[in-house]
Design brief:
Blueprint: E1 4-12, E2 18-27, E3 32-36, H1 43-51, E4 58-63, E5 66-67, E6 78-81, H2 93-103, H3 108-121, H4 137-149, E7 155-159, H5 167-184, E8 187-192, H6 195-201, E9 204-209, E10 212-217, H7 219-224, H8 229-234, E11 241-248, E12 251-254, E13 257-261, E14 267-273, E15 278-280, E16 286-295, E17 299-306, E18 309-316, E19 326-330, E20 336-339
Parallel strand pairs: 3-8, 3-9, 6-7, 7-8
Antiparallel strand pairs: 1-2, 1-4, 4-5, 9-10, 11-12, 11-14, 12-13, 14-20, 15-19, 16-17, 16-19, 17-18
Helix pairs in contact: 2-3, 2-4
Length: 346
C-alpha cells in the first residue's frame, strides 16, 4: 500500500493551455479515491501525471515519502488499468497476465502461482488458454485487472475502465472492482465521468471542473453538502434543483414561500434542493404543476413548475398523482444555499 501526496501539482502544455491548475490533496493507505468530472476537466491528465505518462510542470508528487516527479513509470510501483484493456491479441489470457512478470525476469514457478491466484480471484480459471477475441468485454476487463494484480503494486490507477461496457455489465463490474480493492487493500485512484460510479465506489470523491478541484469529500458530503452549484448539478441523477431565491433579514423565500432561515444571508441567491427532498404535503404552500411523470418502476420522477421555475420531484411508486397542482413542502434542513454570482456554497 502507499500514500499519495500532491502539493501544488500543475500542468501547462507548450501552447499555454493549463490542463491542471495547481492542485493539492493527500490519499491515505488503502483508500479508494475517485476523480470525477466532465470531459476535458483534467482528471485523466492528473492520473497520467501520477502514472508518469505526463510531465509535471510545477509542484510535487510523492508516493509515500518518495518524490517521484522525474521517476520513470516503471519505477513508481504502480499498475494501471486502461479504458481499452490494452491486451495483446495474439497471446492467451495466461500469457497476457504473465507478460509483465516475464519482463521483470520473475521465476516461472512464481509466475504460474501468481497467475493462478489472480485467475481464481477474477473467475478467469476456465479462460486462461483463450485469446482476447474469444472473451466478452467484461472478461477482457478482468484480464486487464489480473495483469495489474500480479504486479502486486503499491498503487492501482484506473482510467475509465468501464466506459466500453453496457449498463448491466458496468453495474456488475463496479461491484467486483470495489470488492477486489477491499480484499487487496491497495491504494487506488479511479477516473470516471460517471457520477453513479463515483458515488457507489469511492471512499472519497474529488470533483473536477475546468482543470481545478471543485470539492473533495465522502460521497455523502458531496451529495448532500455540495460546495458549488457545479457540484450540485453534476452529482446526482436527477441533479439537485437549483432555484432563484431572495433572502430578507435571514428569511429565504422562493415563489412567495419561506423555504429556509439563515441569519448570515441577504439579497438574491440560489437555493438547492434534491428531488427526493421535495415531498407531497396537503398543507404545503408551494404548488407543483406536473407536466411529465417518468415511471421508473420502484419510483417516479415528476417534472413540472413551481411558479415560473422548472422543478423535478422524486416520489414512491405508490404515490397517487391527482389532477391539478400538487401541494408540496421541503424536508427540514434539506436546503443548500449558494452565491448567485460565484456559485459557491454559503
Amino acid at each position: 500500500m502507499a500514500q499519495v501526496h500532491l502539493n501544488g501539482l500543475n500542468k501547462v502544455y507548450p501552447n499555454g493551455f493549463e490542463a491542471l491548475k495547481p492542485s493539492s490533496f493527500h490519499i491515505e493507505d488503502g483508500e479508494f479515491v475517485v476523480l470525477v468530472g466532465p470531459s476535458g476537466c483534467g482528471k485523466s491528465t492528473l492520473l497520467r501525471m501520477v502514472a508518469g505518462l505526463e510531465e509535471i510542470t510545477a509542484g510535487e508528487l510523492k508516493i509515500d515519502d518518495r518524490l517521484v516527479n522525474d521517476t520513470d513509470p516503471a519505477d513508481r510501483d504502480i499498475a494501471m488499468v486502461f479504458q481499452n484493456y490494452a491486451l495483446y491479441p495474439h497471446m492467451s489470457v495466461r500469457k497476457n497476465i504473465a507478460y509483465g512478470l516475464q519482463n521483470r525476469k520473475v521465476g516461472k514457478a512464481e509466475i504460474a502461482q501468481k497467475v493462478a491466484e489472480a485467475a481464481a480471484m477474477l473467475n478467469l480459471g476456465d479462460y486462461l488458454d483463450r485469446k482476447p477475441s474469444q472473451l466478452s468485454g467484461g472478461q477482457r476487463q478482468r484480464v486487464a485487472m489480473g495483469r495489474a494484480i500480479v504486479r502486486d503494486p503499491a498503487l492501482f490507477l484506473f482510467d475509465e475502465p468501464l466506459s466500453n461496457l453496457d449498463a448491466k455489465l458496468r453495474n456488475q463490474m463496479r461491484i467486483e472492482i470495489k470488492a477486489l480493492q477491499r480484499r487487496l487493500g491497495v491504494t487506488s485512484i479511479y477516473v470516471t465521468h460517471d457520477q453513479v460510479e463515483a458515488m457507489t465506489m469511492a471512499d472519497r470523491i474529488i470533483v473536477m471542473n475546468a482543470g481545478r478541484i471543485e470539492q473533495i469529500g465522502t460521497p455523502e458530503d458531496v451529495y448532500h453538502r455540495p460546495a458549488s452549484t457545479f457540484v450540485a448539478s453534476f452529482m446526482g441523477a436527477p441533479p439537485m434543483n437549483l432555484l432563484p431565491a431572495m433572502a430578507n433579514k435571514g428569511v429565504v423565500e422562493f415563489a412567495g414561500t419561506e423555504v429556509h432561515r439563515h441569519e448570515a444571508v441577504e439579497g438574491p441567491l440560489v437555493f438547492g434542493v434534491r428531488p427526493e427532498d421535495i415531498i407531497p404535503d396537503a398543507l404545503g404552500e408551494m404548488l407543483l404543476h406536473v407536466d411529465i411523470v417518468e415511471e421508473l418502476g420502484a419510483h417516479r420522477l415528476l417534472h413540472g413548475k413551481i411558479g415560473a421555475e422548472q422543478v423535478t420531484m422524486h416520489v414512491g411508486k405508490d404515490t397517487e398523482i391527482a389532477s391539478g397542482p400538487l401541494p408540496v413542502s421541503l424536508k427540514p434542513d434539506a436546503v443548500s444555499l449558494f452565491d448567485r454570482a460565484t456559485g459557491t456554497r454559503l
